[in-house]
Amino acid sequence: MVLVLALGDLHIPHRAPDLPPKFKSMLVPGKIQHIICTGNLCIKEVHDYLKSLCPDMHVTRGEYDEDSRYLETKTLTIGQFKLGICHGHQVIPWGDLDSLAMLQRQLDVDILVTGHTHQFKAYKHEGGVVINPGSATGAYSSITYDVNPSFVLMDIDGLRVVVYVYELIDGEVKVDKIDFKKTATTNSAH
Amino acid sequence: MSPAPIEPTLPGSLSSESSSLSGEKGQFANLRGVRWRINLGILPSSSSIDDIRRVTADSRRRYAGLRRRLLVEPHVPKDGSNSPDLVMDNPLSQNPDSMWGRFFRNAELEKMVDQDLSRLYPEHGSYFQTPGCQGMLRRILLLWCLRHPEYGYRQGMHELLAPLLFVLHVDVEHLSQVRKLYEDHFTDRFDDLSFHESDLTYNFDLKKFPDSLEDEIGCHGNAMKVGSLGELDPEIQTIVLLSDAYGAEGELGIVLSEKFMEHDAYCMFDALMSGARGAVAMADFFSPSPTGGSHTGLPPVIEASSALYHLLSIVDSSLHSHLVELGVEPQYFALRWLRVLFGREFSLEDLLIIWDEIFASDNSKLNKGVEDDTDSSFAIFNSPRGAFISAMAVSMILNLRSSLLATENATTCLQRLLNFPESINLKKLIEKAKSLRTIALEANSSNPYPSFRGAHERSKLSAVRGHSLSFDCNSPTTPLSLVPESYWEEKWRVLHKEEELKRGSSQKQVPTRKKGWSEKVRLHLSRTGSDPSHMKAEKGKKDPKSTVRRSLLEDLCRQLGSEEDIGEIVCNEVLDQKDPLHVEVEVEEQDANLNSFTCPADDSHLIGNTGSEENSSIFSASTSPLTNDHENDSEKSSIVSNSSLDENDDEPNNAEAFRSIPEDPPLPVSDPPEDISPKPETNNDSTGKQEAGLKERKHLSGKFQWFWKFGRNAAGEETSEKEGASEAAKSANRESNQGDTSGSSTSDEFSNSSVNSKGDAADQNMMSTLKNLGQSMLENIQVIESVFQQDRGQGGSLENFSKNVLVGKGQVTAMAALKELRKISNLLSEM
């Protein structure tokens, strides 16, 4: 029952002033155990705000982030799952599943979380999961039309992860749920 | 396993236990878990094993159902709902009804529970700190709290639950021991048979099996070869029947079962908390708001603490007054005692014995004739169990009596109360509690006393109980600051006016200090009234309570004074007439505590107002604390305000002095005549008269009456010298300046004068002597108080203090006064 929040590409203050109020009202401290941030926050205030929701926060560097100390990629283990984080602008073509899969194999993770495209995507691929939480503020993107604010909440429980997707469509929060189960022994061949 | 060592001990112990206990406690003597379950009302007390098993099974089923329902697993779709409304049911949903919302709330509750559980019984950690046990406790508590959301989880509930679980565990262990010994009866022979596939003949198996079985048994060497169930000890028999896997309800019905310990513990806990429709429900002690049936509008635990003090006041009023004076509110320590039923005060083994007793008491509500409209009774007294609980608490307080009386401030008192000593004679404690229980039950059914409003603020529950005084004055012993204020103020003013009139000339000797007290005392009161009232002189008591008390006393004095010509018998009547008057004597003391002015706290009170007139000095010892307002008026008769002075002045010296007084053994109640007799001057014939009258009242009130009579007589016939003396005393006090030194001189004078005035009617003499005695005591007290007041007065705690110098002298005089007081108390105790 570990709740992991995955979001990114907020582009505050350059492209968006703040998170949508409906999202903000849902994000209360105390419920979430980890936060994974794909990048492009961009300023320290956003970092602090997210830190207030949960002290355990992992951020990777997006191209517009003002804090240059973030890493390019990060891996962590939560429960039985290995998670990998990367902003995604380094993986070309942007948003391409195969390339992302390459990154996943490189990092040797079960769940890869990337961003940059500002579009929510969740793929099941080769025994692992590739998730793109989209842009939490719905910031403008040069490669995506009609960006809807979205983020992802993962509920990791043993060998099973339930992915809740929260999207703000037409001013309403829509929630969707995807179940992934990890097969017990999945070791990358090496 | 090594049965050999077990064998000699177990059967022996079992049989001895059963024989010793079964006589007292009937069946299930050494199966505490079962016994408690019966006592708590979970299991029927009928003796049929089958019934017990069935009820057990039912309760376990209920618990299992509850557990399934309430322990939430959010992502397990319970009803197979395929498309839950995700907008509502997602983890971040703010919707309180969502599954996740419940999950998070449970998680918070669980965190609270875990905090407490991790600290539970560390000294028995080998059992309580194991994850299995902790898990069980956690689940039980969670489920109970979810089931009773109005209470939530409060610290202390885990301590109520832990011994219950422990007791069940002990039973199960006992069962396993018995099982070892009496294997034959527990295991069905056929269950363990391993049928060899290859053997075709049935007979062959049978032959083989018993051989092997006997081999095993033989090699253990100790098997109890018992033939049938009937040959067993009844205890063992019961155990076997209770644990038979094939009995009623099968495995679910095995009464002593490890698998279902959690279920059983939950049932016991639930029954304990809800009181099983009885009068005492532990859950009430955890609720912050007054329960429906409460008359007082107080939270039940506060009410119960007051009940405790009430009982204590009946039983041992000096200790009670001492505690009250120090300001030790009962709920400071009683909260912990009551909420965990003494779990923190005793070790686990002792606690189990105590709980045996508590649970053995019936919890059904006592049917009282007077219905709920009387606001007298304490809810906790409504059942024998409740009465026993409070009696137990009181007996614990009494156990610490000497150390409590020796302390001078509230903190130390509380420390002593909260660190109950380890090595105690538990049996004695319980015996005492049992005896007190009857008192408690009586107390509940006697006069209601109305002073609950706001009572908990000053838990002075020293109600004037019927037996203590003949008067039916329901003077609320707890002068509550709020409500009674106006009423008593008024009374005071009325009283005061009368007294003014009566008073006439006030002489101004400074009666107070009685130097020659010792002689006086020895001589038994040759003194004529030094007016105790002057004590109050200086210190105005801001305390409305004291006001009340004072006014009560004053009223009393007044009335007494006004009835001078009545004979002794009248005394009684007088007493009766004092309806509104509160016998300050807070008399619960049925002893001469009266005499022992005790009122350590009185110091402050005493200083309070000046001059109670001496007529009223009735109870010599009582100093009616007058409030500041009244102080000027002073002429108030100082009423003996024993005990229950609300003042919490910490005046150690005084306290000590007074404390010594209460330590005197309580004087026999209705012995006024005897008291009087020793007095040399008193004319015995007059005494006889008085005695006759006095003897009628066999209560403490006898003492009071005695004093009152004196007061009355004194008032009546006391010549002006007395008056003068008292007046003087009063004035002296009032000014509080000369207080000390002059006081002493005046007291001397008074004694002389009082001696002189002896010549009057015999009984008057006696009365007067007693009165003088009392007055001198009062004076002493006042003196001391004034001294201390002055010392502290700079702190400006009281308004009208006369901040007079006397500090240096004050000390000396105070000490002298204390000594005199001691003497007085000795004297009185002799009486």
From TrEMBL, chain A:
Signal peptide bounds: none
Keyword Transport: yes
GO biological process per UniProt: protein transport; retrograde transport, endosome to Golgi
Keyword RNA-binding in annotation: no
Domain Calcineurin-like phosphoesterase as annotated: residue spans: 4-157
Highest taxon of source: Eukaryota
A GO cellular component entry from the record: retromer complex
Keywords recorded for this protein, A-Z: Protein transport, Transport
Annotated family: Belongs to the VPS29 family.
Protein name: Vacuolar protein sorting-associated protein 29
Biological source species: Vitis rotundifolia (Muscadine grape)
From TrEMBL, chain B:
Gene3D superfamilies given in the database record: putative rabgap domain of human tbc1 domain family member 14 like domains, Ypt/Rab-GAP domain of gyp1p, domain 3
Annotated keywords: GTPase activation
InterPro entries per UniProt: Rab-GAP-TBC_dom (IPR000195), Rab-GAP_TBC_sf (IPR035969)
GO cellular component term of the entry, any: cytoplasm
GO molecular function: GTPase activator activity
Biased composition (Low complexity): 12-24
Region (Disordered): 1-24, 499-547, 605-696, 715-762
Protein name: Rab-GAP TBC domain-containing protein
Protein species of origin: Vitis rotundifolia
Phylogenetic placement of the source organism: Eukaryota, Viridiplantae, Streptophyta, Embryophyta, Tracheophyta
